[in-house]
Amino acid sequence: MGAKGLRVEIMDTTLRDGEQTSGVSFVPHEKLQIAKKLLRDVGVDRIEVASARVSEGERKAITQICEWASSKGYLDRVEVLGFVDKHVSLDWIHSCGGQVINMLCKGSRRHCEFQLKKTIEQHLADIKNEIAYAKQLGIKVNIYLEDWSNGMKDSREYVYAFIDGLKDEAVSRFLLPDTLGVLTPRNTYEFLSEMQERYPRLQFDFHAHNDYGMAIGNVAAALRAGCRAIHTAVNGLGERAGNAPLASVQAVIKDHYGLQTHINERELYSVSRLVEGYSGIPIPSNEPVVGENVFTQVAGVHADGDSKDNLYCNALLPERFGRRREYALGKNSGKANILKNLENLGLELTPEETRRVTDRIVQLADKKEMVTADDLPYIVSDVLKHDPAEQKVKLLGYFVTNSYGLKPTASLSIEIDGQKYETYSSGDGQYDAFVRGLRNIYKEQLKRPFPRLTDYVVRIPPGGRTDAFVHTIITWEMDGKTLRTHALDPDQTEAAIKATIKMLNQISTNN
Fold it and tell me: Which among 226, 234, 227, 223 is positioned nearest to 263, based on CA atoms?
């Protein structure tokens, strides 16, 4: 694996390369919040926050990030991509308060000759001129070898001549990107091993792209070759197929190589959700570590094995990441999954009652109806013909309107702890009007806090049927805790209201 120490540095490029994802554009306050989260809470070593000269919005964002980072002693951990452009990038970064430039240079002969139309000697002279000027400004220089992977494949002598020309200059790091995602684990290991054997005094970073789905495999190969600085992006955002995902890289570093980082694993899920919200790019439900379903066991045999000395658990324990294991309810779940969910809900059934509940869940699953843990008490009540657990919050009735040219309104009647409350409100939509009414009851009449809605997802099954069930998933935040409730109904507003009442009952139960 190499022997350069036991710790791996993480440079996260969500705010630069991640923002090159098609359709993604962070506004300044979003960039600042992500930067704070990554440096202060998650604990990445460095962040790359933007490309120089892009826009006035980028100037504002970088200035804000640098001001905050400077006040916290983090400024040397904030990096900006810049160019060999007769000092324009350096002046721009300096004016924003930045102290580190990741200077984009040509890491392959083809890029140097066909894009710049220069010889390597001319390119190196230009770079050295920029390095000298950066020293005058007090800016630290890292060198990006753009297209380094193809350079090593097609023109290795060029790469070595490039490094030889700069190895004695004031360069802190050489950043080695697989710009077009063409590497395999085998040649990643070969190329990085060669670089480090040839230049043992230099610091190399590896930057993987996922065009062939090999980013994580290539990161693993880089670690095996002794590389101790890896570039990542939250949720794998980035140009084309994206970069190596931060959460997966952390898991590989720790679990497969026994190396250390500064990453706080319990913050990985929350930063993924933050970036998901700001970017508008949803996290796949099966995304390792941070996906919605990756700690959900579906097969009943797995739930059974977990009850018998965690036979189906690996090192990726959900508690590491501030999450918990769940057991899906469906036609493949079986009795063991049912028992796990009943245990979590504090419900006890006889073996015969459990069999009957399992049969009902299988029937629902065969109709493609989704069953969640939230639904289980109601299924038990329906099957066994007894009252469900006491609800402290009951919706007695509501009426919502949506008229052309007028704001939607909602009238609702609700019972909370045996007391009836009524209210009327308007909003930007029917559901918004309903929630505003609830918020008014809780804050104005009950003097209780009301959760903040952080995510609202609607899923409609394919096929185009207007009577199909709408599956609504709503995420709330309260007192630093996340609540997520699901509901099904042919009407989208009704499904959202059902999910909201479930959430209020969860809060009442917890309190």
Answer: 234
Q: Which amino acid is at 371?
A: V
- CATH 3.20.20.70 holds for 9-279: yes
- C-alpha torsion 119→125→126→129, nearest 10: 180
Closest CA relative to residue 13, chosen from 2, 23, 1, 24? 24
The structure tokens listed for 220 are 């693993």
Residue 101 contacts residue 93 (beta carbons within 8 Å)? yes
Q: What is the mean pLDDT of residues 148-174?
A: 98
CB atoms closer than 10 angstroms to residue 373 = 17
Query: Please, which pLDDT band fits residue 188 given cuts at 50, 70 and 90?
Result: very high
Q: Is 146 a catalytic site residue?
A: yes
Is 248:263 a contact under the CB 8 Å cutoff? Answer: no
Q: Is 267 a catalytic residue?
A: no
Banded pLDDT at 304 (limits 50, 70, 90): very low
Mean pLDDT lowest among 114-123, 327-336, 356-365: 327-336
Catalytic residue among 9, 16, 77, 109: 16
Do the beta carbons of residue 62 and residue 96 sit within 8 Å?
A: yes
Which of 412, 392, 413 lies closest to 505 in space, CA to CA?
392
pLDDT in tens, 380-426: 765 665 545 567 899 999 999 988 888 999 999 999 999 999 999 99
Which of these is catalytic: 30, 48, 146, 265? 146
Long-range contacts of 383-392 (CB under 8 A, 24+ apart): 383/353, 383/356, 383/357, 384/349, 384/353, 384/356, 384/357, 391/505, 392/416, 392/417, 392/505, 392/508, 392/509
User: Could you tell me the pLDDT band of residue 307, with boundaries at 50, 70 and 90?
Assistant: very low
Question: Quick one: 141 exposed, middle or buried, by C-beta within 10 A (0-12, 13-18, 19+)?
Answer: buried
CB atoms within 10 A of CB 285: 10
pTM score: 0.73
Can you give the pLDDT at residue 305? 45
Report whether CATH 3.30.160.270 matches the domain 393-510. yes
Domain ranges of the chain: 9-279, 296-384, 393-510
Token pair 């070898």: residue:
145
